[in-house]
Amino acid sequence: MPALLVSCAHLPTTSVRALPEPEGGTLFAQVPIFDGERALGPRDVLVRGGTIAQVSAAGSLSPSDDTRVIRCDGCTLMPGLIDLHIHPDVDGGAPWHRHMLQPLDQGRAYLYAGVTSVLSAKGGPGQRLMEKAQAKGGPPVPHIYSSGPSLTAPGSHPVPLLWDTVPWPLRRIAVGLQPTASTADEARVEVRRVANTEAPPFYKIYFDSFPAGSPHMPTWVMQAAVAEAIAQGMRPVVHAGSSQDAVEAAEAGAALLMHAPFTSPLEPRQIERIAATDVAFLPTLRAFSWPVELMQGQVTAFERATVSPALLDAFREPPSGYDQHGMGIWMQDFGATTRTLQANAALLVQAGVPMLVGTDCGVSGVFPGAGLHAELQALVDMGLEPIDVLTAATARNAMFLDPLGTFGRIAPGQRADLLLIQGDPVQDITAVDDIMGVWIDGVELTRVDLAGEEPRP
Ligand SMILES: [Zn+2]
User: Cis omega (within 30 of 0) on the bond before 283?
Assistant: First the structure.
């Protein structure tokens, strides 16, 4: 094994604090709006009691004495961002530099970055801590949706990854907690157990062989798990690795592919078969790009602002011999993996397969909030229009989490998860990094820089 450096105190550099909601609500006065689907001109938006109460013509609403009035020249008001693929139990650090769980710090980092809702792609202690904080009303964390404890085949993904990257003695516990099924019957029993205990809205299944050569869940076991999840009222979300895995998961009835296929290119006939189903997919364009970017010192502005320098620096200081074992060997393929994944993502978009947005945040090199901002940029770099990327990351992601459509748009009755942006992100996606304010459930968050405790804009 390579030397594994573990420390427990990488404090974040930024945070958020909740401000009391004003009695008379908050009025965004004459602010241009991206409503989750369309760029509208200036509007008055009144938020009260955690929801959007009114959206009216600019200048038409008059505030009462106890209304907080927000005016912002050259700004855009938009729905909070949503990340549909996060792992609250891991911190995004290098495989040789993991540290103790800090899920509540992660929760604040998401909010700092304007990410107001997340889908946890694997349940565990981190998710539970965030759920508890959410239920108690603080400290502020994003709305968290669960896909259960997940299901894999014995020894299959993510077991080799846990074994390689989780520090001793936690790795034995982490592997022991991972539910597995080797037969269709075992899969049905486990799915029913989860439905009868935590009953998450989504159910995650691993259908992959990662690293190459490790055990792969048989197709009929995946099909049984998907069918049973649907029968139990949970929507199946599937991590599929190869193009054939993706086709089989989609045809089995998966609601969402957690990645574009990344281990083999999609053939035209496979794309047709996926497009003929109701499945949506997450590109996760940057899930495997960290060995190139972070190990070479390419750090985004948002990563620099929100990730502890020690965590970032560790990518540039791999221990000697790291490339002889486990992840060190697997990551040598990540350049090719990223090219396959990006090409497949573009093909699925062209074929009209609904694209949602998620990051795989928590895996090495993908950090809370900063990872989503980089993903949005990568999707625009892939050739998508900013408005399509923003729609996917707000209104469309929200409709996936809640088909009743109670949030993700700026419209009366919607949950007031909002971002105030300097500039117009519909014209220039980089504007979305320039956050002037974040609201969750109508509660304003102050963004602070912990180095100097100076309020950031
Ligand atoms: Zn994942």
Answer: no
Q: How many residues does the chain have?
A: 457
User: What burial class does residue 307 get, using C-beta atoms within 10 Å of its C-beta: 0-12 exposed, 13-18 middle, 19+ buried?
Assistant: buried
How many angstroms separate the alpha carbon of residue 341 from the centre of ligand 1? 14
* Separation of alpha carbons 279 and 284, rounded Å: 16
Closest by CA position to 331, among listed 94, 50, 23, 49:
94
Q: How close is the Cα of 358 to the center of ligand 1, in Å? A: 9
Please report the pLDDT score of residue 101 as a whole number: 62
* Ligand 1 centre distance from Cα of residue 174 (Å): 15
Between the CA of 405 and the centroid of ligand 1 the distance, in Å, is: 25
Please give the Cα distance from 23 to 158 (Å, whole number).
Answer: 48
298 CA distance to ligand 1 middle (Å): 22
Domains of the chain plus CATH, in order, are 80-406 (3.20.20.140)
Distance 107 CA to ligand 1 centre (A): 17
* Spatial contact of 436 and 97, defined as CB atoms under 8 Å apart: no
Q: How far is the CA of 441 from the centre of ligand 1 (A)?
A: 27
256 contact partners, CB below 8 Å, separation of at least 6: 84, 202, 235, 237, 238, 279, 280, 281, 282, 356, 400
CA 238–ligand 1 middle distance (angstroms): 10
User: Does the global pTM surpass 0.85?
Assistant: yes
Q: Any alpha helices (H) in 321-419, and if so which ranges? A: 326-330, 334-350, 370-381, 386-391, 397-401
Over residues 385-428, the pLDDT tens digits come to 999 999 999 999 999 999 999 999 999 999 999 999 999 999 99
What the block records as the tokens of 376 is 């949005």
